[in-house]
Amino acid sequence: MTSFTSLDHSTETSTDICMSLENVSISYGASEAVRGVYMQIPRGKVTAFIGPSGCGKSTVLRALNRMNDLIEGCTLKGRVLFDGHDLYARGVDPVEVRRRIGMVFQKPNPFPKSIYENIAFGARINGFRGDMDELVERSLRKAAIWDETKDKLKESGYALSGGQQQRLCIARAIAIEPEVILMDEPCSALDPISTLKIEEMMHELKKSYTIVIVTHNMQQAVRVSDMTGFFNVSTRADGEGKVGCLEEFAATEQIFNAPTQQATQDYVSGRFG
Amino acid sequence: MTSLQPNASLQSPDQGPFQRKALQFQPSLSRNRWNLFFTLLSAGFAGICVLPLFLVLAYVLFKGGSLISIQLLTQLPPAPGLEGGGIGNAILGTIIITLLASLIAIPVGVGGGIFLSEYSTSGPFAQFVRFGTNVLAGVPSIICGVFVYGLIVSTRVFAGQSYSALAGAIALAVLMLPTVIKTTDEALKLVPDELRWGALGVGASKFITITRITLPSAFSPIATGVVLAIARAAGETAPLIFTALFSPFWPEGLLNPIASMSVLIYNFAIMPYEAQISLAWAASFILVVMILAANLFARYLSRFAKA
């Protein structure tokens, strides 16, 4: 792993907590999307966010690597700690944050370049000085797509199927050796077989990375995750509009078998949402 | 309808509140006649829209096409009263002025478009710039000429020279700017946000994202807009009359008056000499062909956008 150079104002460091959210509230303009999230994301595990649409799980995910900065009018209150460093502290460079915390998006979004260049792009702009061919092969292997692409590395990333494109995007995220990989519904546009391949890959990946995944598919959360956070929407106190909140955060087994909240029980048993 | 016989509802015309007719198409119905009439009418207007293009092409080809020769492309225009000669200096001059104008307008226009689409947060400044470009696009070209005349030619800011190729190029650049800014802005807006996020997600800075991912993705629509802007500028006369002026000689550097095809046509077409008038027609033909070629090239470029 890369060493910390820019984020050096350490507050508290815990060995097995990778990221923690402290009273995080996120607003788009004047309307609050998520309120009061406390969460501790363990290192080397897969953490899943589930919940009905509009509950703010993608918003929280995007807050973890400052992707929300790109949305006009989006503001965050509270603290998001990564290895004990507040990502929203003054002077933190969001570009550096995103180099440590990679992201895979809902829709596969390969660059309009060759498969090789898709992987090499991130490495090159991050100042990679090593064997590029070897890095490309290693990344594609980790994303379980090497066998399908090794003979056509010079072809466009668009020539691949949707599921292959998504694995290419995962390989692209892995290539820059992030510490955390965020996945925003990575399988929602894919068929079951591609989904299965990505899930198998995640089990491999969590040996070396911390993974946070947003999913609408509860079976997927059960299959891949160690920890699960259930987000819910509730009507605001003033009766105007809705706001998301973290209802329950616990080990996946507990969320699906013995949740402490009634809303979680209703959601995971399919009674709403 | 009371009965459920399938044919009754189709063929019995007198039952129910609606008048039922047979299902066969009847051209004599008034709605079908009006339909035909308006279809033909709009097709006729559509034909009239492209008619001027073909008439202009045919007329210019008829008047000027026969004069095309190597001599026309390589020689200077004759002195009044003499025969022969060519328009070589005007062709070269048009190319020089247009290239120079592109060198000014493309960086500024593409840069401005990048700012509008990628950096500005649709605040008042960006709104103002967008509105300003639209207004600038509507400014008559002769006003551009007068403006550059007042700013550069009459003040002799460039090494004490008054009329110059550079002044002409600046006037044309002002005309090209709105097109280049707008097409860049629109082309960049068409690039999906996911692509930008992908680049930012692997730790690219905004600059790297724009130069390595966003701009290349939007290259072909931007190039199309630029070529169209060049094609428009190459044919402009009014901005050049009092900036680049005209010269019967070969171009003598960027700070001297320079010949251009559009001004040559303007000057020669009204001269009382047969040789000059036919040269004006020949120049018209070449100018039209050049602009047509640029437009076809733009279409060719835009084809890559979909691929």
Salient structural properties:
heterodimer, A: 273 residues, alpha/beta, Rossmann fold, six-stranded mixed beta sheet, four-stranded antiparallel beta sheet, 10 helices, disordered N terminus, B: 307 residues, mainly alpha, MetI-like fold, 13 helices, 0% strand
The first-level CATH class of chain B is given as: Mainly Alpha
Our count of domains of chain B comes out at 1
Tally the beta strands of chain A: 10
What is the level-2 CATH architecture name of chain A? 3-Layer(aba) Sandwich
Contiguous runs where pLDDT drops below 50 for at least 5 residues of chain B:
none
Write the CATH homologous superfamily of chain A: P-loop containing nucleotide triphosphate hydrolases
Q: Write down the overall mean pLDDT of chain B.
A: 87
Report how far apart the termini of chain A are.
Answer: 39 Å
Given helix and strand content, the structural type of chain A is: alpha/beta
What's the overall geometry of chain B?
flat
The total count of helices of chain A amounts to 10
Low-confidence stretches of chain A: 1-14
Give the strand content of chain A: 25-35%
The greatest interface between two protein chains, and residues involved on each side, is: A-B, 26 and 20 residues
Integer-rounded radius of gyration of chain A: 19 Å
In short:
The complex is a heterodimer of chains A (273) and B (307). With 273 residues, chain A is α/β, with parallel strands linked by helices.
What does this molecule look like?
The complex is a heterodimer of chains A (273) and B (307). Chain A is α/β, with parallel strands linked by helices and 273 residues long. Chain A has ten helices and ten strands. Chain A has helices spanning 57-63, 94-100, 115-125, 132-142, 146-149, 162-175, 192-205, 218-224, 252-257, 262-268, and strands at 17-28, 31-42, 46-50, 74-82, 85-86, 101-104, 180-184, 210-214, 227-235, 242-251. In chain A, helix 3 crosses helix 4 and helix 4 (132-142) crosses helix 6 (162-175). In chain A, 45% of the residues are buried. The model of chain A is unreliable at 1-14 (pLDDT under 50). Chain B is mainly α and 307 residues long. Chain B has one domain (70-306): MetI-like (MetI-like fold). Chain B contains 13 helices and no strands. Chain B has helices at 6-11, 30-64, 70-74, 88-119, 124-138, 141-153, 165-190, 193-201, 206-217, 219-234, 238-241, 261-268, 274-306. In chain B, helix 4 runs antiparallel to helix 10 and helix 7 (165-190) runs antiparallel to helix 10. Chain B starts with 5 loop residues before the first helix and ends with a helix.
